[in-house]
Design brief:
Blueprint lengths: L2 H19 L2 H4 L13 H8 L4 H13 L5 H14 L3 H10 L2 H6 L6 H15 L3 H9 L3 H10 L3 H15 L3 H10 L15 H19 L1
Helix pairs in contact: 1-3, 4-5, 4-6, 5-8, 8-11, 10-11, 11-13
Length: about 220
């Protein structure tokens, strides 16, 4: 079921129950009744036919990859997309909507700003989100993130790649194990590293940021 329609159904049931349990609902038609839980924007859009978050995500990605859209407008669409996937449910819906593949393809865009936003969005989607972390790993994106974090000629792109890599490996051991395989030995502490060890992960990401900053100086 569409998430908005699901919320609408829940709202209808809850408010129906509120009204039936309210003694003023039949005895006094002018009485002020409890309003219940308000509808969210997704449910309202479903009710009145407006675009859902899924629609907006697909439209944003279509604009980003369109050859007929200016770079400025692509960046506006990317900013909208990033804000949408701050919502965990929307981030998890990326797989169902087929949005991971076009996003990761933008890692190799000729435009540095598109590469930067692609890494930014990847990091936002996987942050504190195991389902998205699993998807990024399954898509083979970790070696690409490492390459971008170390080799990309644009320092802002390198920073966002490090952010995405950091978000991917925190509290997610399979992602960290994969990253350790490809990271330079100079940035990885000796011995086993636990994905829940924030100090160790901060040390790794700190060295990557230091290396990136030296390349820009």
């Amino acid at each position: 079921m569409d998430p908005g329609m699901n919320q609408l159904l829940k709202w209808s049931i809850e408010n129906s129950q509120t009204a039936s349990s309210d003694p003023t609902s039949t005895s006094d038609p002018k009485a002020v009744r409890p309003s219940g839980r308000p509808l969210n924007a997704e449910a309202i859009n479903s009710l009145f036919g407006g675009p859902t978050d899924a629609d907006l995500m697909k439209e944003s990605m279509a604009a980003i990859i369109s050859p007929n859209i200016t770079l400025e407008n692509k960046l506006v669409a990317f900013d909208n997309f990033e804000q949408l996937i701050e919502n965990v449910d929307n981030a998890n819906n990326m797989e169902n909507l087929g949005l991971w593949s076009p996003l990761l393809e933008l890692f190799t865009s000729e435009e540095a700003e598109l590469r930067r936003y692609a890494n930014w969005c990847a990091g936002t989607a996987v942050q504190n989100n195991v389902k998205a972390q699993e998807r990024l790993l399954a898509m083979g994106a970790i070696p690409k993130l490492i390459n971008l974090a170390i080799e990309d000629p644009s320092e802002p792109v390198r920073r966002k790649a490090i952010y995405a890599l950091s978000s991917e490996v925190r509290n997610y051991q399979p992602g960290l194990d994969e990253a350790v395989k490809g990271l330079p030995k100079s940035v990885v502490p000796e011995g086993a590293i636990d994905a829940g060890n924030m100090d160790a992960l901060d040390q790794i990401m700190g060295k990557l940021r230091e290396d990136s900053a030296r390349k820009s100086s």
